[in-house]
Design goal:
It is built from one helix and 28 strands. The chain is an all-beta fold. A hairpin with an 8-residue loop joins strand 12 (134-140) and strand 13. The longest helix is centred in the last third of the chain and has 5 residues, at 227-231.
Length: 335
């Protein structure tokens, strides 16, 4: 668990499940508050955590020696908003890399074997008076050792898909509201679909199998929260989504009202059609609500599924609590 002490130093705690609860097994205080972390670039045996802080630093920690990072770099000029990792899982492809996005508007990719500079960087355009704040980042399309893509979301609603093989923007769009979360349904397969979570009670599902040269990826927009969102004037923030590791078509959506919502993605038939000129274009599916439950009086800010125990999950909420829960009967979703 990552966080901040009242004096703005970083709190890094490691907990272990025991019986019906959890116990603190290790902790460390870091010089600056911590915002985001990932195990994505680490193998299961190493269990190294990459974390970004409010001072713009990216550091990698060994869970058994938390006080001294095993690697660190000045990733951004100020706050690191989010960190993601790829290449460390048992089925991972390519180099173990970490991606960061920051308040300075930059998106950068890091490899511990190259400590002095990022291996890829996507910076705000030269001469930009006010760079957009890059809020979120996610790896995907890492289906062999040469392919890997990166999604990034920005505070003005921009969504960009970067190809790391060419170091260029492959596709971009604007969803009109600040982007709080981006996620591929799987990072280690050819692009299938990805989700974009936003301010103003919206989740956008994009079919990533087919990219039209002018229309891009087919899109389905889901209003989240129903009457709750309307009562709040559309102000319900969707802080992110997390796809179930055991079923890429089941996704948990994190509500600003403290409600966890479970959706199933239904694919269209067919997934690809041709436009009037005979050019292939994708067809978006639909997100259907499966279940929902209010778990906190404050927003759910972060969430993760267990890759081993189906339905086991953990979340942090804005009421300064972390909750461990289990979702049952997931094997019946889609049956």
């Amino acid at each position: 668990m990552l966080g901040s002490h009242p004096k703005m130093t970083g709190a890094l705690h490691v907990y272990q499940m025991k019986g019906n609860g959890v116990e603190l097994v290790a902790k460390a205080e870091r010089p600056s508050a911590l915002k985001s972390g990932t195990f994505g670039a680490s193998g299961l045996l190493e269990r190294q955590l990459a974390a970004g802080d409010f001072a713009g630093k990216l550091a990698v920690y060994d869970l058994e020696r938390l006080n001294t990072p095993v690697w660190q770099a000045q990733a951004h000029a100020s706050l690191v908003n989010q960190v993601d990792g790829a290449g460390g899982a048992a089925r991972g492809f390519g180099a173990p890399e970490m991606a960061t996005c920051g308040r300075d508007g930059a998106v950068r990719v890091w490899d511990q074997r190259q400590p002095d500079a990022p291996v890829a960087a996507f910076e705000p355009a030269d001469g930009t008076d006010q760079s957009r704040d890059a809020w979120c980042v996610a790896f995907g399309d890492s289906h062999d050792d040469t392919h890997r893509s990166l999604l990034a979301g920005y505070d003005n609603g921009d969504v960009k898909l970067f190809c790391l093989r060419t170091n260029k923007v492959r596709w971009e769009t604007n969803v009109r509201n600040g982007v709080c979360g981006v996620e591929f349904d799987r990072r280690d397969i050819k692009m299938n679909k990805f989700l974009v979570s936003c301010l103003e009670a919206k989740v956008h599902a994009f079919d990533a199998r087919t990219q039209h040269p002018t229309r891009g990826f087919a899109q389905h927009t889901l209003p989240v929260g129903g009457d709750t969102a309307r009562d709040q004037g559309g102000g319900l923030t969707v802080w992110g989504s997390r796809t179930l590791p055991q079923n890429r078509d089941v996704t948990a959506v994190l509500g600003g009202d403290g409600t966890l919502r479970l959706y199933r993605y239904r694919y269209p038939a067919p997934r690809r059609v041709e436009d009037a000129d005979g050019v292939p274009m994708g067809v978006a599916g639909k997100l259907d609500l499966v279940a929902e439950r209010n778990l906190s009086p404050q927003p759910i800010g972060s969430f993760d599924w267990s890759p081993d125990k189906e339905g086991l999950c953990v979340m942090s909420c804005y009421d300064q609590t972390a909750r461990v829960a289990i979702v049952t009967k997931l094997q019946t979703v889609g049956a």
